[in-house]
Give the backbone structure.
Amino acid sequence: MFGVNGGELVVLLVVIVIVVGPQRLPEYAEQLARLVKSARSQLSSLRGSVSDAFSEDGEPVDWSTLDPRRYDPRRIVRDALAEDIPVLGAGGAAGSAAGAASHRPPAPVVRLVAGERPPFDEEAT
């Protein structure tokens, strides 16, 4: 926590006890306890108001769906490419992409002669 290990934490606590002194230490401990309690209550009320704002029809919010670590661009693209896209067939009805691909003629293969430069498309660049 905050890059402080156990030994450094003990040294910090000893320095705080020496600087604050035994007379004011209980007063500062009470103030710290009040601060922690108020922070917890404010966090709880904030969590409740955010849950109310995001929930639909009083259902609890599934926070795991809002986790940004779940949005892997590679997975999103892979899932999008794996979906069957409806393609209009010869009769005008939508069919599966695999079925429509079997009725399409194969694309012609253009082979370049040795030393020939490939065509340049100005609109593509």
